[in-house]
Specification:
The chain is an alpha/beta fold and 424 residues long. 36% of the residues lie in helices and 26% in strands. The protein is built from 16 helices and 15 strands. The chain has a seven-stranded mixed sheet with strand order 9-8-10-11-7-12-15, sandwiched between helices. It has a six-stranded antiparallel sheet with strand order 3-2-1-6-5-4, with helices on one face. It is globular, with a radius of gyration of 23 Å. 38% of the residues are buried.
Length: 424
C-alpha cells in the first residue's frame, strides 16, 4: 500500500526541483513498498520511475527530462561513480539507513540510452531476517529431501533457477539451519548479501583476480566443515567443489538451469565425468518465486477449473501423480475438491490482488537407482521420469498444491512452471 504522505513528498520534490529530496523520497518510498529494484527510465518527453514489487514492475511517478541529468548526478555521487562519464555503463553501490534504522545496500547500475542514462538500483536489506527452513515453502518430500541433504557429512547441494528466483535466500536458510558452534562454515560470495554470525564470509573481487575458484582453494586450507560458494559458473569451480566434497566437506552452491534434472546435464556439459557427478551430488533444488494471493481479498474461482478442456486434464494428471504420497500431511479434501482461488484487489494490496511472494520447489534427492542411470548416460527425460516415480515433486505439482491451499493462483504457477507431459 502506498504511503500517501511520502508519495506526496516525492511529487512535491519533483515540482520544486529539489533533487536531494527527490532521491531520498524515491528510495524511502521504495523501502516502504517492499520494492526490490528501482528503475529510472528516460523517455523522449518524460522520465518514469518504476518499482519492482513482488517480481512485477509498477509505474510510480514521472518527472520532466530537464531535471534528469541532476537526478543522475546525485545518484552517481551517492554511489561513487564518475558523474562526467555518460557514454559507458557503470556499476557502483552505496549504503542507506532508513528512519527505522534498517540498513540497506543499494547496488547501482547505469546504462546509456538514446534518451539519456537509465539507472537501476537493486535494494538489499542487510537487516533482513533469515527465514526458518519451515517458512520458505518447503513441504512434503521437498522438505524431507532437503533435510536429509543437510544431514549428509559430505557432498554437494545445488540450488538452481533463473536470476531473482530466491536461490540465495534458500542457501542462507539452509546455512542458518546447520550453523552450530561445532562446525566451521566458510562462504565465498559476490556480493555478501546478508551477514550472519558464526560464518566466515568472503567477497570476491574480480578486478584483483579473486574469483570463486580462488576463494574455494583458499577455503579448503581453512579447515572447513561446510563451504558455500555463490555460484558454479565454470569447470574450474565445479572441479574444486567436487574435490571438496570427496575430501569430506559439505558444499552448497547455486547454478543456472531450468529444472533439477537439467542441472545434471549442465554439470556434465562442463566435462565432469559421470562417475564424479553420481558420487558427489546429493540434492538438487530447483525453484521459482510466485506471488502470494492477498489474504484480505482473494476469492474462489467463479468457474470450476476442471471444466477447462485443456487445463482441466493437465491439472488432474499432475494431482493424480502421487501427490497424496508426496505430501503426506496434505488435507485430502483439498485434493478431492480442487477449489482454486483468484486475485481480486483491495486497498491492502494496492488493488493488485497479490501481496508478497513464496517459492515453489522441485527437489531431486540422489539415490542408487538415479546414480546408475547417470553412470549409464541415460537421457535426462528418462532420469526425470525415474525421479518422479521415486517421489520427486515437480514445480508444477508443488505450485498446484499451493493453489489448493489458497496461497497462490494457477496463473502465477503456470507463468513459471512448465507442464510435465508424463506422470507415473
Amino acid at each position: 500500500m502506498i504511503d500517501n504522505a511520502k508519495f506526496q513528498q516525492l511529487k512535491d520534490a519533483i515540482i520544486a526541483g529539489n533533487i536531494p529530496q527527490l532521491a531520498l523520497m524515491m528510495i524511502s518510498l521504495a523501502l516502504d513498498m517492499r520494492s526490490s529494484d528501482i528503475h529510472i527510465e528516460p523517455e523522449e518527453r518524460l522520465v518514469r520511475i518504476r518499482y519492482r514489487i513482488d517480481g512485477s514492475l509498477q509505474k510510480i511517478v514521472e518527472y520532466p527530462t530537464n531535471i534528469h541529468p541532476a537526478v543522475i548526478s546525485r545518484i552517481k555521487i551517492m554511489s561513487n561513480l564518475k558523474i562526467d562519464e555518460q557514454r559507458i555503463p557503470q556499476d557502483g553501490r552505496c549504503q542507506v539507513t532508513s528512519k527505522d534504522n534498517r540498513e540497506m545496500d543499494l547496488r547501482v547500475s547505469t546504462f546509456p540510452t538514446v534518451n539519456g542514462e537509465k539507472v537501476v538500483m537493486r535494494i538489499q536489506d542487510k537487516s533482513r531476517k533469515i527465514p526458518d527452513v519451515t517458512e520458505i515453502g518447503l513441504d512434503g518430500n521437498n522438505f524431507t529431501y532437503v533435510m536429509e541433504g543437510l544431514d549428509s557429512p559430505n557432498g554437494i547441494i545445488l540450488t538452481s533457477g533463473p536470476t531473482g528466483s530466491g536461490k540465495t535466500t534458500t542457501l542462507y536458510t539452509c546455512l542458518n539451519k546447520i550453523n552450530t558452534e561445532d562446525v566451521n562454515i566458510l562462504t565465498i560470495e559476490d556480493p555478501v548479501e546478508i551477514q550472519m554470525d558464526g560464518l566466515s564470509q568472503s567477497q570476491v573481487h574480480h578486478d584483483i583476480q579473486y574469483d570463486f575458484a580462488t576463494g574455494m582453494r583458499a577455503a579448503l586450507r581453512q579447515d572447513p566443515d561446510i563451504i558455500m560458494v555463490g555460484e558454479i559458473r565454470d569447470r574450474e569451480t565445479v572441479d574444486i567443489a567436487i574435490e571438496a566434497s570427496l575430501t569430506g566437506h559439505l558444499v552448497l552452491s547455486t547454478i543456472h538451469t531450468n529444472s533439477a534434472v537439467e542441472t545434471l546435464t549442465r554439470i556434465e556439459n562442463m566435462d565432469v565425468p559421470e562417475f564424479l557427478v553420481a558420487s558427489t551430488v546429493q540434492v538438487i533444488i530447483a525453484q521459482r518465486l510466485v506471488r502470494k494471493l492477498c489474504q484480505s481479498c482473494k476469492q474462489p474461482a467463479a468457474t470450476p477449473i476442471g471444466a477447462d478442456p485443456v487445463l482441466g486434464p493437465q491439472i488432474d494428471k499432475a494431482l493424480l501423480g502421487g501427490v497424496d504420497v508426496k505430501f503426506p500431511t496434505l488435507d485430502k479434501a483439498l485434493l478431492a475438491g480442487k477449489a482454486f482461488f483468484v486475485a481480486k484487489g483491495c486497498d491492502q494490496c494496492n488493488n493488485i490482488g497479490y501481496f508478497g511472494r513464496i517459492a515453489i520447489y522441485e527437489v531431486l534427492r540422489m539415490n542408487n537407482e538415479l546414480r546408475k542411470l547417470i553412470l549409464d548416460k541415460t537421457p535426462s527425460v528418462q532420469i526425470e521420469k525415474a525421479a518422479i516415480k521415486l517421489g520427486m515433486i515437480t514445480l508444477e505439482q508443488d505450485g498446484l498444491v499451493k493453489c489448493l491451499q489458497g496461497i497462490t493462483s494457477l496463473e502465477e504457477v503456470y507463468s513459471v512452471a512448465r507442464k510435465v507431459e508424463e506422470y507415473v
